[in-house]
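Quick board copy: two proteins, each given as sequence then tokens.
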Amino acid sequence: VQLGNLASLVLVLAATSLAATSLGPFLAGVADSQLTIDQISNVVVLGLAGLGGAIVPSDRLPAVLQPLVPLTPQYWALRGIGDATDG
């Protein structure tokens, strides 16, 4: 891995961590039990990971899903990490 800009990488990782962490308080505010939070978070995280390119490359998704790809934090995290590591 070639680290192009360490400061950029740290900022991308911090922003990604913040986005991931913010899901917990949001779900705590809308869910009625811990079981509901667990179930919803699994579906949301896996769904966004698949859509954002963390499981399957986003360019391989159907054309109807392509406009939704940039709406996911995973897409921006992968793009930012790629840019920061010259990859």
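And the next:
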Amino acid sequence: MVAGAPVPSDADPLAVAAAFAAAWDAHDLEATLALVTDDCVFESARTAANGARVQGREELRRVWGPSFAAGGGAMEVEATFASGDRVVQQWRFVDGDRVVRGVDVLRVRDGRICEKSGYVKT
């Protein structure tokens, strides 16, 4: 599956998660948003945001837009596994000397991510 391409409703959750991670790492906001449902619920992994909850594709566009536009850093997926419609990704974000490690728990519905809850190691 190519980020930004139409997503088949029966897409494998692991393939959806991989496409999402690739779009996110490429700082491609439109491709990332194409991989979430209209009503996607996102709970931030940022410790400063204290797990802030954002709902809906357009609200995600507003929240994610500035950081996607700024670019910088690279996401590195360390491990991924799935059980049914749930996917767990362990990742590292590297930006110069700064390294953040975390885990995302995703739920996939009809070939798109409908929930993303992030957790970071502090």
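Board note added afterward: Strands lie at 36-43, 53-55, 74-83, 86-95, 98-109, 112-121.
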